[in-house]
Amino acid sequence: MTQKTALITGASSGIGREFVYSLAEKGYNIVLVSRSQDTLEEIAEEIRTRFAVDAYVLAKDLSQELSPKEVYEEVKGQELTINMLVNNAGFGTTGELLQSSMEKNHQQVMVNVNSVVNLTQLFLKDMVDRGEGDIINIASMMSFLPFPYMSLYAATKAFVLSFTEGIHEEYKHKGIRVLAVCPGSTETNFFEDAPDSLKEGKMRTPKQVVETSFKALAKNRSFIVDGTPNYTIANLPRILPRKVITKISGSIMKKNMS
Question: Which GO terms label this protein's molecular function in UniProt (predicted)?
Answer without folding.
Answer: oxidoreductase activity
